[in-house]
Design goal:
Layout: H1 4-19, E1 27-29, E2 35-37, H2 40-47, H3 51-61, E3 68-73, E4 77-82, H4 84-95, E5 109-113, H5 125-144, E6 147-151, H6 160-171, H7 173-181, H8 185-198, H9 200-214, H10 218-242, H11 258-270, E7 274-277, E8 280-283, E9 298-301, H12 309-322, E10 328-331, H13 338-350, E11 359-362, E12 368-369, H14 386-403, H15 410-431, E13 438-439, H16 442-446, H17 453-468, H18 486-496, H19 498-507, H20 512-531, H21 539-562
Parallel strand pairs: 5-6, 5-10, 10-11, 12-13
Antiparallel strand pairs: 1-2, 2-4, 3-4, 7-8, 8-9
The structure holds arginine.
């Protein structure tokens, strides 16, 4: 059955269309009535009639049937009240719908480029954001019915590998593997850098090593592989700890595109797009200028003949369009790379590698800040290790559970603490509008009150506990939703809005909209539960209230799951 919003909207669209073909009713859920259509103003301008007149024309041709009633308010708003029968039928259909009203799309191939940490470098909070947002989008798109191809564009190539490989040799392979496998990537990187700065002999060896790596020397490649494999194994541990869906198969690092880079240059040359500037080969895409108004180059090949980050991204676009048949490419990358990515798509479009029909979107995100509202740094001033944050979140969640003496085995309590910690960290990230910065504050993220992941998990577990108290499994056959109390009505309306919230989040690539919806729903549920006793009710009233509990629980669980957050039965 179509979602409630769509049913109401399509009737209104027909009536608006009778006044002017294609006019949008601009329908929104409303606190004053059930829905409000605000499209009259725009329509009145288009047809040159007064809003009041237009509102009356719309109402005159509106065929709402049993959906509800409409009233003209103010200068021309249309206030819509749903009929109880209609809302009841809608809620009943949701009870039998595992998708809770979200329609399946025609499947498309969606590439999501996310996480992308760098080999032999620590994953930091920026990678956390990319990983968590990318994972949520991947789950949402898959739920919508699309074919998602995750691409973990790991930084596994470039001049730093000269010194990293030389350092690995100095340490001895076994010792290096031991350091890397415990995830001590930063120490390894720092030591390599320090030697490079202090020791000219090491510097020269590193330079030669880069040449050997680029020319495909087998022994050098083998050593490079060790660095990559150890790092990827470590990233996988972090992904497992976060419970994200990325696998080693999704790792298609920068090096994968090496063989395609020469062709990128040649084809740009043939297309007449390449310009030599200061010895480097560049494209100056139209519309990009620096602060002084001078054209901005996208550097494809550097003066030293090495290929840069841009060349790899161009090759990746081609590969994704030609080989993976991408219909949409999402880049979940920090906001500072906006211009780089924009230049990459512009050049790829001019070169004919990226048809207009393929949408490219930069899913940009802001910074994670420390408690001092400055860039998040460790006490020593270095990058904060992502796993350390997760471990600390788990410790604190575990301590909270011990304090509440939840009566679980050590193992079960640990598992619950892990689930709460993940929910806390992911929800805090996803619930902030992604372009904005947020402060990393574990105590606030882990709180059971307020707009937090653990609060929503708890709301779900509380609903499950109601069902555990029943003498027999609930049976919703023939349930009628009378929704007599205002809190029940308000909850019922909230429940049918899940598809709107989901669609709006996926359309604009803004997971926080789904978070806002779920938090609001949990609050509606609390108000309902305070006003409308469930376990002490009887007969059809109890069935109705239990059905509202079931739908709320199912909606919270599904909503959290598409964000990558699980909902334990008990907390
Ligand atoms: N490895 C880069 C970093 O850590 C991010 C790569 C983003 N993806 C891309 N296709 N450029 O900043």
């Amino acid at each position: 059955m179509p979602a409630t919003y769509d049913l109401v909207n399509s009737r209104l669209a027909t009536a608006f269309g009778a006044v002017l073909a294609g006019a949008d009713p601009v329908l929104r859920p409303s606190d004053r009535c059930d829905y409000q259509a605000n499209g009259v103003m725009a329509l009145s301008k288009s047809v040159g009639k007064s809003p009041r007149e237009v509102a009356e024309l719309v109402v005159a041709s509106l065929e709402f049937g049993d959906i509800g009633t409409v009233e003209i308010a103010g200068p021309g708003f249309l206030n819509i009240s749903l009929s109880p029968d209609f809302l009841s039928t809608q809620l009943s259909s949701l009870l039998n719908d595992p998708r809770l009203g979200v329609e399946r799309a025609n499947p498309e191939n969606i590439i999501i480029d996310y996480s992308a940490p760098n080999v032999a470098k620590e994953m930091h909070v920026g990678h956390l954001r990319s990983t968590v947002i990318g994972d949520a989008l991947a789950r949402m798109y898959r739920f919508k019915g699309h074919q998602v191809i995750a691409r973990n564009h790991v930084g596994d190539w470039g001049t730093p590998f000269g010194k990293l490989i030389e350092h690995l040799l100095d340490m001895g392979e076994d010792a290096a593997i031991a350091t890397l496998s415990i995830g001590d990537l930063d120490t390894f990187y720092r030591e390599a850098n320090a030697k490079f700065e202090a020791d000219d002999g090491f510097k020269e060896r590193s330079r030669l090593r880069v040449v050997a790596l680029q020319s495909g020397d087998p022994e050098t490649r083998r050593l490079w592989r060790i660095l990559v494999d150890q790092s990827v194994a470590y990233f996988s541990e972090v992904y497992a700890k976060l419970d994200v869906l990325l696998t080693p198969d999704d790792v298609v690092g920068e090096s994968f595109y090496n063989d395609m880079l020469q062709k990128v240059v040649e084809d740009l040359q043939t297309a007449g797009l390449l310009v030599e500037s200061d010895g480097a080969l560049c494209v100056f895409p139209e519309g990009f200028v620096n602060r002084d108004g001078d054209p901005l180059p996208l550097i494809v090949q550097k003066r030293d003949e090495g290929f840069g980050y841009a060349a790899t991204d161009l090759a990746a676009v081609r590969n994704r369009v030609e080989n993976l048949q991408a219909q949409e490419i999402l880049y979940v990358v920090g906001a500072p790379q906006a211009q780089h990515l924009d230049m990459v798509y512009t050049v790829a479009r001019s070169a004919g590698w990226l048809p207009e029909s393929v949408r490219c979107e930069h899913v940009a995100f802001g910074n994670v800040l420390g408690q001092d509202h400055k860039m998040f740094k460790s006490r020593e001033g270095g990058t904060v290790k992502l796993v350390r944050l997760l471990d600390e979140a788990i410790e604190r969640a575990d301590a909270q559970l011990l304090e509440r003496s939840v009566g679980l085995s050590d193992e079960a309590r640990r598992e619950l603490a892990t689930s709460i910690a993940r929910a806390a960290v992911k929800y805090a990230d996803l619930s902030t509008e992604r372009q904005r910065d947020y402060v990393f504050e574990l105590d606030r993220m882990l709180a059971f009150e307020g707009d937090t992941g653990p609060y929503l998990q708890y709301a779900y577990a509380r609903i499950e506990s109601i069902f555990r108290k029943l003498p027999a499994p609930a049976d919703f056959e023939g349930v009628v939703f009378n929704l007599a109390e205002p809190q029940a009505w308000h909850l019922g309306l909230g429940l049918v809005e899940f598809p709107i919230a989901f669609e709006s989040a996926i359309r604009d690539l803004l997971p926080h909209r789904l978070c806002t919806y779920l938090f609001d729903l949990a609050q509606r549920f609390t108000a309902f539960y305070d006003a409308c006793p469930v376990l002490s009710a009887s007969g059809s009233l109890q069935v109705e209230r239990l059905a509202l509990c079931r739908l709320t629980g199912d909606t919270l669980k599904l909503g959290l799951s598409v964000l990558g957050i699980d909902a334990p039965q008990k907390m």
